[in-house]
Amino acid sequence: MALTGIEIYKKLPRTNCKECGFPTCLAFAMNLAAGKTELDLCPYVSEDAKANLQDAAAPPVRVVTIGTGDRSIKIGGETVMFRHEKTFVNKPAFAVLIDDRMDEGEVDGRLDKLEQFQYERVGLTFGPELVAIKETRGDPSRFEHLINKAKERNHYGLILMSTSPEILSAGLRICADSRPLLYAVTKENLDEVAGLARENSCPVAVRTESLDELSELTSKLIQLGMKEIVLDPGSRGIRKALEDQIIIRRAAVLNKYKHLGFPTITFPCEMTDDPMKEALIASIFIAKYAGIIVLSDLEGHSLFPLLLERLNIYTDPQRPMATPEGIYEIGGPDDNSPVLITSNFSLTYFIVSGEIETSRVPCYLLIKDTEGLSVMTAWAAGKFVAEEVAPFIKKCGIGEKVTHRKLIIPGYAAQISGELEEELPDWQIQIGPREASHLPAYLKMWKP
Ligand code: SF4
Predict the structure, then answer these.
(1) How far apart are CA 297 and CA 109, in angstroms?
(2) Distance 24 CA to ligand 1 centre (A)
(3) pLDDT tens for each residue of the chain, 448 residues long
(4) Which of 181, 196, 316, 407 is the most exposed place for a label (fewest CB within 10 A)?
(5) Mutate to test the pocket of ligand 1, among 10, 12, 14, 45 (most ligand atoms within 8 A of CB)
(6) What domains sit in the chain, N to C, each tagged with a CATH number?
(7) Residues 427-448: b if buried by 16+ CB within 10 A, e if exposed
(8) Does ligand 1 have an atom closer than 6 angstroms to the CB of 227?
(9) Is the pTM of this model over 0.70?
(10) Pocket test for ligand 1, best of 10, 22, 38, 46 (most atoms within 8 A of CB)
(11) For the CA of 18, the nearest atom of ligand 1
(12) Residue nearest to atom 4 of ligand 1 (CA)
């Protein structure tokens, strides 16, 4: 049974030394209870407390890490059924499938797309994270060749797909240091593949024909000491596959059923030959409740909406997305360029900066920390008012970058202009348009 934050807190040293990165032991305990941090980050937990907390603090859906270093990804760690209850924690990873019947051109094309479809939005870079390499021909050298190719071309996480322990072992010889996911343990090969996973410290996926069998095999793996397990109940019809995802999540989160308390892997690529239908199925699994989604191919027009859906669902609903406070230079501004200011709500920043780029007028865009609130909300909350904006203008250093003293504030914040001029007597406050889309025309007319 998972412990509450308060129960965990009672077992911590309670010195508030901050070495874990949290301001207090209580904050650390609350985050630990929510599965958002790891016990190892506190160096002062006694061995007794550690033994006590390790299992109890684990989220009902265990975390599984695939890969190493910067490109490693975590899946699982979920604590709720619905995002609005708290937040979802680790977004599902997208994998592209490469199988050993594909010719070199096709393989190269998919690896190219993996690199190509990395997008930057709202200050984040996102795209597919994994390559699933599937053995179908029983040829270890072809399997090794594909793994080598994927390793050389990029540093994305790997899923080695074969039910043959010999083939998986051949693959591991060249990529065990990348900590791939081994797919799959089945009832026929459980001991051998579990042995490979333990020897190489890799996570494993279990594939079965039913949920009962899945629970039986994971219980055996848990007895063998395995902690990083990914579940595939084997269903490939949309309705059954969705039902299985929901049953697994409910069993883990609501019933604390440990044998199903692991993230899942799903295969839209095996559920249809129609690329559009495949994208729709993938979109269902983003919401409910895949840990990994394997796609047959990557196409920008279907991948991008899926990535945005994932971003929306896995954004913490209690914390608005925010851009760091500071001066953003757009288009190579000089000391005569316009200076604009807005709030640090990410969407505001990206819309405004996009319109400035469209205008082709080099500008300084000042982003004021408003705790992620939009201009109007921040004004109403007292975070985008003259007393807050003026000190920021004085200390941010914009005065050294421009020779003029003209500051363009958003049209929606026109009401602060008088007070701001009083707080900043050297500056002339200019009221910009209310809609960002009118910025290009406004900036083209602007004179220093
Ligand atoms: S490192 Fe440990 S003792 Fe220090 S604040 Fe964090 S939880 Fe408390």
Answers:
(1) 10
(2) 7
(3) 567 889 899 999 999 999 998 999 999 998 887 767 778 889 999 888 887 887 767 789 999 999 998 889 999 999 899 998 888 999 999 999 999 999 999 999 999 999 999 998 766 789 999 999 999 999 999 999 999 999 988 779 999 999 999 999 999 999 999 999 999 999 999 999 999 999 999 999 999 999 999 999 999 999 999 999 999 999 999 999 999 999 999 999 999 899 999 999 999 999 999 999 999 999 999 999 999 999 999 999 999 999 999 999 998 887 778 888 999 999 999 999 999 999 999 889 989 999 999 999 999 999 999 998 999 999 999 999 999 999 999 999 999 999 999 999 999 999 999 999 999 999 999 999 999 999 999 999 998 8
(4) 316
(5) 12
(6) 5-56 (1.10.15.40), 63-313 (3.20.20.20), 326-445 (3.40.50.11600)
(7) bebeebbeebeebbebbeebee
(8) no
(9) yes
(10) 22
(11) 5
(12) 17
In angstroms, the CA 30 to CA 8 distance is: 8
13 Cα distance to chain centroid? 31
Which residue has tokens 């594939």? 207
- Check pocket membership of 9 for ligand 1, CB cut-off 6 A: no
The tokens describing 357, both together, are 């780029």
Please say whether the beta carbons of 424 and 398 come within 8 A.
no
Pocket of ligand 1, candidates 14, 19, 36, 38: which has the most ligand atoms within 8 Å of its Cβ, to mutate? 19
Residue 20 Cα to ligand 1 midpoint, Å, equals 5
Packed helices 300-313 and 275-287: angle between N→C axes, nearest 10 degrees: 10
82 lines ligand 1 (CB under 6 A): no
- Using the atom order of ligand 1, give the atom closest to the CA of residue 19: 1
**For residue 104, how far is its CA from the centre of ligand 1 (angstroms)?**
52
Cβ count within 10 A of residue 112: 13
**Residue 20 beta carbon below 6 angstroms from any ligand 1 atom:** yes
CA atoms of 342 and 384, how far apart (whole Å): 9
